[in-house]
Amino acid sequence: MNDFYIDPKRQNKERILGLFFQHDALSKPQIAELTGFSLPTINGHMKDLENMGMIGPGELMDSSGGRPAISYRLQPRSKLALGAEIRKDFIKICLCDLKGEVVKLWNIGVEYKNEKAYSVKLNSLLKEAISTCGYPLDNILGIGISIQGVVSKDGTEIIFSKILDTSELDIDVIRKDISIPVRLCHDVKTAALAELWHNRKVSNGIYIALSEHLGGALIKSRCIEHGRSGYAGSWDHITYSTKGKLCYCGRRGCIDTYCNFATLFDGESIPDFFFKLREEKSKSHEERWRKYLSTIAFGLYQTWLILERRIILGGDLSMWLIPDDVAFIENEIINRSTFTCKPGFVIKSRVEHHASAIGAALPYLAEEIPEYVRPIESWSTYCKPETVEF
Ligand SMILES: [Zn+2]
């Protein structure tokens, strides 16, 4: 048997399983109608899928005469995956199901410290999440750990991380005694994956994280572009002014230094800032917010000129954005543009909460979903395969 052999039985089973990702409930006669398969064929595959725990019988369906048929539904929690997000002062862990929904969420206040003890702590938190989540280990496919830094394509090595010094973060310690796969990933790329999963309309785009620090990820043909090393999409270090403040990256005047949370909020909490902006209509807050959006638009215009793709505004601020803000950014880009632009290319992200943690779990789940209905690629191909460059 060669590598290109396609097992027709497996293909038929995948065809049936895929239908359950498109329909809430289906009876066997409905499956027969949709696939053209005979009832004995359907019975055999459905039995297998039931034994695997992936589908289960539900209520009786309405029938137009004759015996009502039993409906079957996907059992989304038959496969689960964990995504963990590491930030300066907390660790967020999400348990996600086959529909990409959050089944359980842990928000743990742990201060990041660049020492071995932190990896040990993370390891014990992950083990605790597995043992207390209420689902058997057999159902959990893997753990993705998103960090504020660029990671190698295989998820084993951190290649750039200056927001948090991660030189002592040890993947071998983090996965000690955990028998399922564990990998590292770049938080902005995983947030973009969560967006792709929940927004099928996006094929190509630039995902923008408006968070404590800015970030970006490029989307091409529904995959993440990695670039030669993994830096593709890092628009946050475009130089706004060479005389500007020192950036954490070591250079001066990057867009990030003008648009990080420390500069925007100046010690105020996010809810307080937006209360003063939206409810109290504070002039100084309005001024600061416009300046922020305008600087963001300046940076995005550079990327827009080169890539001309949809721009998706995500990150921690996504939930605070109103349509006027999105339109303001888009207009600033259009007004700067050399070319005529059709409006509607700047949109707000659909996933407003926990995007980085959710996205770190999703590629494990994608692997279990038939290719023809798979929302995103699995880890092996989530970044477009690229020609090796020298
Ligand atoms: Zn920088």
TrEMBL record:
<comment type="similarity">
    <text>Belongs to the ROK (NagC/XylR) family.</text>
</comment>
<dbReference type="InterPro" id="IPR000600">
    <property type="entry name" value="ROK"/>
</dbReference>
<dbReference type="GO" id="GO:0016301">
    <property type="term" value="F:kinase activity"/>
</dbReference>
<dbReference type="InterPro" id="IPR043129">
    <property type="entry name" value="ATPase_NBD"/>
</dbReference>
<protein>
    <submittedName>
        <fullName>Sugar kinase of the NBD/HSP70 family, may contain an N-terminal HTH domain</fullName>
    </submittedName>
</protein>
<keyword id="KW-0418">Kinase</keyword>
<dbReference type="InterPro" id="IPR036388">
    <property type="entry name" value="WH-like_DNA-bd_sf"/>
</dbReference>
<dbReference type="Pfam" id="PF00480">
    <property type="entry name" value="ROK"/>
</dbReference>
<dbReference type="InterPro" id="IPR036390">
    <property type="entry name" value="WH_DNA-bd_sf"/>
</dbReference>
<keyword id="KW-0808">Transferase</keyword>
<dbReference type="Pfam" id="PF13412">
    <property type="entry name" value="HTH_24"/>
</dbReference>
